[in-house]
Amino acid sequence: MADFAELEAQDGIRFSWNIWPSNKIEATKCVVPFGAFYQLLKPLENMPVLPYEPLRCKGCMAVLNPFSRVDFHGKMWVCPFCYTRNHFPQHYAGISEQNQPAELFPQYTTVEYKLNRPPAPPPAFLLVVDTCIIEEELSAIKASLTQALSLVPENALVGLITFGTHVQVHELGFAECSKSWIFRGNKDVTPLKVIEHLALRKNPQAQQHPQQQQRGGVGRFLLPVADCEFQLTAVLDELQKDAFPVQPDERPGRCTGTALAVAAGLLSGSCAGQGGRIILLTGGPCTEGAGAVVGKSNEEAMRSHKDLEKDSAPHFRKACKYYESVAAQLVSQNHTLDVFACALDQCGLAEMKVCVERTSGHMILAESFNHEVFKKSFQRLFTFTDTESSRAMGTAFNGLFEVYTSRDVKGNVKVSGALGPAASAEKRTSSVSDISVGMGNTCAWKLPGLDESTTMAVFFDIASKDAGSGAGQAPGMQFYVQFVTTYEALNGETRMRVSTCTRRWAESNSPAELIPGFDQEAAAVLVARLCTYKMETEDEYDATRWLDRMLIRLASRFGEYQKDVPDSFQLSPTFSIFPQFMFNLRRSQFVQVFGNSPDETVYFRSVLHRESVLNSLVMIQPTLLSYSFNGPPEPALLDVSAMSPDKILLLDAYFSVVVFHGSTIAQWRKAKYQEQEEHEAFKLLLEAPQQEADVIMQERFPVPRFVDCDQHGSQARFLLAKLNPSATYQSNGVSGDVIFTDDVSLQVFMEHLKRLSVQSS
Question: Would you give the end-to-end CA distance of the chain in angstroms?
Fold first, then answer.
């Protein structure tokens, strides 16, 4: 098989298995699910953009692609997915072997079409700001919002809602003075009530307000940046902390749920169906009205993982049900919700998760609005063109993601479901499996907002088929999968990206034939997404036990060994690193919730479910670089033995970037040797990891937390928590650093795996 990374660079696709067994029984024995990752808007070199409509099969609606069989004389093509014969339309009359359209070129397995549709209206950005925070935090929000306004395209619509005990919708189109409409925070709000209250649509019974009816939401509450920048800046300057008094033993009255309902209603009455983002900036939990996650009294603690396990969180289920209704409303309108939660306490992300994930939004968690994680991440969200300090995210709107699979005499490939930042489009065809995984019972998903990093994981089911019942002739031993993404670009163009790939069936039932096609990196991330999904949706699910049993079955199936002889066990190179990935996944923040709040756990898993394979691998198994005087930077083992007094380590754990100075290096730095001319080499050594950390942080979203620490210092825990504990306080004869933990090391883990894999059943 070709290198899996090269295949990903060509189309943005990675399969967990690249050679598939031809029947369901053999597929079940493979243990690891059959699935694929598809990076929807991955920048691809040499991808053609075609200025015409795609040609679709009349049988299954798949798009013409390089794997289609073409009859140039009869001007017909045969769909490789359903074997339907299709006639070329009149404008393809000049097609021949020497004159082929780009979508038939073998090298163009991914193409993009410019669809002939009217330009989409400019997107709307509705800012929803919490005012139940201290003045210092409010000032930081004002500064970030002012900076963001300078980055938004001038024709984009902008609106502002502030909330505390009540919700204020600011009418930016009223230039005479600051004017806002108030909604009580403890009253139920529906989109129709919002539309009626704000007079967003014409009402024949309300003839006394003709001016308001004529202007509607756009022009009153949502205005182009160029038209309202002065007014919006003035409103932000006048913005003050919520005026309602707060008792010393109570939390502030914060109606986050009502504010989101009002925001959804405003967009529903103003720009339903066009691109839009609701950007929520909150500094604490919702305590007022619908969607409350905790009571006002400080005597009532925020729910913990233990409370959720015991179902003793009084507000959790009711709040989740409320936010599900808000999510359904936003998905129907094709609008996205982004949440920036900045507080030392929890803000209710665990309840709001469904709103963010189903609308393809982003979730950012930080300690304060003054923290660099918030400031830089918020700026990145509004960066629509590349700059020296950051790269554009490639934001797009109104996405629809579809999957088409082939049917042939060897077997049917069916879609079981998908995991990612999307909502089901409820499109059921013959290619949809009865077995549901994640968002199942459909082969299409809606993504109201997407960008270059958005990655969907699609799960497949192999449905065996008798050879005599196949329609048409199977082209060799290949099967085909096509991914189709329709979206609106920021410039208003509607585009369709079509990626078609082929993989092959195994010719026998031998496990050895499947081994070369196993992509252990993609498989590890696929298992991680499935495991975290099961942890959130299944009661009494033991993730560690599930991972261990899966790994033992996989090693027993594909390892080479003699029965009951652990020392004889070995794995082929395509499987050799997979146990290490599972070891680190078991210890990661995705599976081990101890020490993390429910909000933090939801945040980590949310990012895992939207990022690419490479980024997800860094979350599961961080990378470690070692800097020393002995030579250039080199990769180091993620082990406690990597720490040395005369080295600097750079740990990239995705959510944090750690620069760790050995004790000797730290002493030299404190003695300011780097400021002396004769120690220029030491100065360069100190600067090298800092520069590499800056490069990582500029390219990543969310922006990771930066930690600069020294050996034996308190913040060294950020590194120690990720290292393999090969030397602990229980180890004998160990000189150097040890980790105070009862966790098993990778070596002990592998010994147990070998012993359990080779034992006779």
Answer: 33
